[in-house]
Amino acid sequence: MSKTFPVRHALGTALLALFLTGAATETFAQSASDAFHSGRKGRKADKEQQQDKGSAAKVEAKYPNATREEPEAKASAKLSAKLKKIFDAYGENDPAVVVPLADEMIANDKANAYERAISARLAAASLVGEDDAKAMAYLQKALDFNGLSNNEHYDSMLMLGQLQMQGDDDAKGLATIDKLIAETRTTNPEVLAIKGNALYRLERYPEAIAALTQAIDVAGAEAKPEWQQLLMASYFDSDQPAKAAEIAEAALAKSPDDKKLQLNLASIYMQAGQNDKAIALLEKMRAKGQLTEDRDYRNLYALYLNTEGREKEGIAVINEGLDKGVIKPDYKTYVALGQAYYFTDQPALAIESYQKGAPLAPDGEAYLNLARILWSENRLGEAKQAAQKALDKGVKKPEEARKVLAQKG
Asked: Which among 274, 342, 256, 332 has a CA at the least distance from the CA of 298?
């Protein structure tokens, strides 16, 4: 089997999706909205201003150990109305309005660092999922203006790193996340998990294991299942299948009916050469009706056919899959079935299977095997016909087919 973990790409994508959701984007802009409203001047009564300030004071510092000095994140009275228009347009989910208004604010020589940065941030938030390249450009501007609160500044950096990874620039995404961690000294498990994801995608498995282990340890009971799966994959791809199996078995004990987890564990067992364990697990899934895809059945029958003395069980799996319409009736299926019948001394059924599979094969190898079996069963006329078809479709050893054709009788 392939060394690559079977759900590698899916895991990386799923982990990114945990953070790049509509809800995350709304939260990304909401703290900016809170800061804007708490900082507005001249349009509210003093009492309302005090209430806003009190609300702002209660905002939890996400990065309390940041080395960056917290700037004064306020909108000027002169540009407050224009900034409000950008927030209102963002609230209407209208990038076509948000972006031009943000550009206008960014270009305004009277705008301060906060007004420019928050405008760029809102433009980015409105473009995520629509035009990620532009969103990243605006996020970089927001960081360069250096006018946001630490929460907003580093949330922007975090979003930039994730978008870089989503755009398959994992090295740049990792550099951005590393910069965030270095400047904030954060031990936020979600940030650590994103770093682990980037390292995994870059095939830096030992470092990925360290980051993911730390994320899981810090999160404790709140650790996301996807982090465990990614850690499992990191061990698997670093040639530590026993460690990967240990994690998978613990996770499976909590979610015994999780199909993906069971298939991953079966794959780990196969990588570790523990085919009996893989078969037992897949058979449990089969009994519960969880083998619902072509590859599920193929994995199980391949295990049986590659285990001496278990060909009959492989035959049963293939026939069940065909009867259920789950296994595709292609040449690979029929050739596997033909071989299994042949090795279990059922030549008539082997011939029948090869007769179904040979016409579907891309070359003449299946026809050549059919010719050999027919010849051994003293059906020389049919054997010669199969040998000729083998030559017509092409085989690696044409002399074998010609040998059958040269027989007399």
From this structure: 332
23 assigned to some structural domain = yes
> The domain that contains 108 carries what CATH number?
1.25.40.10
Quick: pLDDT tens for 367-392. Answer: 999 999 999 999 999 999 999 999 99
pTM here?
0.70
- Which pLDDT belongs to residue 30? 53
Question: Which residues form the domain of 207?
Answer: 1-223
pLDDT tens track for 105-164: 999 999 999 999 999 999 999 999 889 999 999 999 999 999 999 999 999 999 999 999
**Residue 75: CB atoms within 10 Å:** 23
User: Which pLDDT score is estimated for 156?
Assistant: 95
Q: In whole angstroms, what is the distance from residue 116 CA to residue 32 CA?
A: 12
Q: How far apart are CA 92 and CA 110, in angstroms?
A: 26
HEC sequence for 43-84 = CCCHHHHHHHHHHHHCCCCCCCCCCCCCCCCCCCCCCHHHHH
Query: What is the total count of domains within the chain?
Result: 1
141 assigned to some structural domain: yes
Which residue in this structure is represented by tokens 């035959």?
Answer: 315
d(CA 265, CA 228) in angstroms, rounded, equals 13
Q: Is residue 108 part of a domain?
A: yes
Tokens matching residue 4: 């690559």
